[in-house]
């Protein structure tokens, strides 16, 4: 079986990288840079620094780095917005190269007539949508994970976001094609730009959710959607189970397709938003659903009437629209920055964020049991969720090692609870190193073995982001 390079091989690889990519700060080995690129302040899984950080500016740069990685048997990990929280970009013990793609952030081409655009992997989804808006183009890219997420990372983790109930996830049809550098150093384009194709395997989807273990993305063609008039509304409930139960009934009505987003913020999260001081007028502290309702004025009116009737039958004590566009924007911004509000509310604490997803009908039970479990364990938490598709996030606070161990145990129970409900250990965060232990339980040994077979066929030396998605190697260097 092949082994990874020795410390001397790593040193030679770094020297060759400096020759191949001359220029200021293109190849970095300072302790500060290695630490930043190998760990995250928001991840509490085992981490390891890289041996070197390389700044890529083009596909040709990536090919050069991949070839040097293969020559000296030094693992390589792609790095973008650094927003992932499951240890996706941590280094490897025998030595590794971090390939920073954040400078490859250009929008290369916008095809308004075709409703698509081509960009580099370091482009951020917010910047893409702001660019389209600033240019007066009535289109947007609907996948909206956390602030700062880049297209490369979104593809790698198979991301989702608040719009998933209406527009689906990364594993739908939002990536028409991607350009990928394989472990062999070959550059492939997964398909042409047509909206659909029956030409063989869907190799685009092979790389979506692979977390950089099969290839490094250097370009992507994104499908865009038309901007539709939208109004934001809020409904509040006496308990979280009633709030979540209302959602499925709403989505199953003929007006369900007019719901762009439906988000849950539990009472603890609403209190955190108030305490963090990010709202002009504090919200009542109750379990709350935020809705985005889209369509013509008539569609919005009719859908809103149906939503209001249904939430009232589930005990809603308040339903109201944002009075202005500014208020609507503020309400949604508060949802997107839930993590920072949670952190700001508890000075000196840290937050472990995790997510699971279950069939929508099981979500009320899952959320209710999770809140009970966290309270019984004496842990402070907030809960937010994309409840329209059965996905929710628990943000659990801790201050010391003992509480951290309790949080880890609570996350473990949450994941098993979700899998037992025919759900998944990760709705949109990805596997990384944090969720690898659950894959066999969720997917079965044969399915995981098939994933390993694909990995071994494309990356026989196991150089691309080893230890992620599949179980880490245990010998620190041998496969």
TrEMBL record:
The record's GO molecular-function terms, alphabetically, read: D-lactate dehydrogenase (cytochrome) activity; D-lactate dehydrogenase (NAD+) activity; FAD binding
> Which residue ranges does the record annotate as region Disordered?
20-43
Sorted keywords for this record are:
FAD, Flavoprotein, Mitochondrion, Oxidoreductase, Transit peptide
Q: Which domain of life is it from?
A: Eukaryota
Which Gene3D superfamilies did the record assign?
A: 3.30.465.10, 3.30.70.2740, Vanillyl-alcohol Oxidase, Chain A, domain 4
Name the Enzyme Commission number(s) assigned to this protein: 1.1.2.4
- Name the major location: mitochondrion
Subcellular localization, as worded in the UniProt entry: Mitochondrion
Enzyme class, top EC level, equals oxidoreductase
Q: Which region is the signal sequence?
A: none
What cofactor(s) does the depicted protein rely on? FAD
Using the record's annotation, list all stretches that form the FAD-binding PCMH-type domain.
Answer: 44-227
Q: Which PANTHER family match?
A: D-LACTATE DEHYDROGENASE, D-LACTATE DEHYDROGENASE, MITOCHONDRIAL-RELATED
What family is it from?
Belongs to the FAD-binding oxidoreductase/transferase type 4 family.
Q: What is this protein called?
A: D-lactate dehydrogenase (cytochrome)
**From which organism does this entry originate?**
Suillus luteus UH-Slu-Lm8-n1
């Amino acid at each position: 079986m092949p082994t990874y390079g020795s410390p001397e091989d790593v040193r030679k690889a770094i020297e060759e990288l400096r020759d191949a990519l001359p220029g200021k700060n293109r190849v970095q080995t300072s302790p500060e840079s290695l630490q930043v690129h190998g760990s995250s302040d928001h991840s509490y899984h085992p981490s390891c620094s890289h041996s070197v950080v390389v700044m890529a500016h083009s596909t040709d740069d990536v090919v050069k780095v991949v070839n040097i990685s293969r020559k000296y048997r030094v693992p390589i990990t792609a790095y973008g917005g650094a927003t992932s929280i499951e240890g996706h970009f941590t280094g490897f013990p025998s030595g590794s190269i971090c390939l920073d793609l954040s400078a490859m952030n250009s929008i290369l081409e916008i095809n308004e007539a075709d409703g698509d655009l081509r960009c580099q992997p370091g482009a951020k989804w917010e910047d893409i949508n702001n660019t389209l808006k600033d240019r007066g183009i009535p289109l947007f890219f609907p996948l909206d994970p956390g602030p700062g997420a880049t297209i490369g990372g979104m593809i790698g983790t198979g991301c989702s976001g608040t719009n998933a109930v209406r527009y689906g996830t990364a594993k739908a049809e939002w990536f028409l094609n991607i350009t990928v550098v394989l472990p062999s150093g070959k550059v492939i384009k997964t398909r042409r730009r047509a909206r659909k194709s029956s030409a063989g395997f869907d190799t685009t989807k092979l790389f979506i959710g692979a977390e950089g273990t099969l290839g490094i993305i250097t370009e992507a063609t994104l499908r865009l959607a038309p901007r539709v008039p939208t109004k934001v509304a809020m409904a509040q409930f006496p308990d979280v189970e009633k709030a979540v139960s209302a959602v499925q009934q709403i989505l199953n009505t003929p007006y369900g397709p007019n719901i762009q987003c439906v988000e849950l913020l539990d009472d603890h999260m609403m209190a955190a938003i108030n305490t963090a001081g990010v709202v002009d007028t504090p919200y009542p502290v109750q379990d709350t659903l935020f809705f985005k309702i889209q369509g013509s004025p008539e569609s919005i009116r009719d859908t809103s009437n149906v939503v209001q009737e249904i939430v009232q039958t589930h005990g809603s004590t308040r339903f109201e629209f944002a009075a202005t566009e500014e208020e609507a924007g503020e309400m949604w911004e508060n949802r997107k920055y839930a993590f920072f509000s949670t952190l700001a509310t508890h000075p000196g604490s840290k937050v472990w964020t995790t997510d699971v997803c279950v069939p929508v009908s099981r979500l009320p039970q899952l959320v209710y049991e999770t809140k009970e479990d966290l309270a019984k364990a004496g842990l402070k938490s907030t809960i937010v969720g994309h409840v329209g598709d059965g996905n929710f996030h628990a943000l659990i606070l801790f201050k010391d090692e003992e509480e951290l161990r309790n949080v880890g145990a609570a996350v473990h129970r949450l994941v098993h609870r979700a899998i037992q409900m025919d759900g998944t250990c990760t709705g949109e965060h990805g596997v990384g190193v944090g969720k690898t232990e659950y894959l066999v339980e969720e997917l079965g040994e044969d399915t995981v073995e098939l994933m390993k077979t694909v990995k071994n066929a494309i990356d026989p030396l196991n150089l691309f982001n080893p230890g992620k998605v599949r179980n880490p190697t245990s010998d620190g260097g041998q496969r």
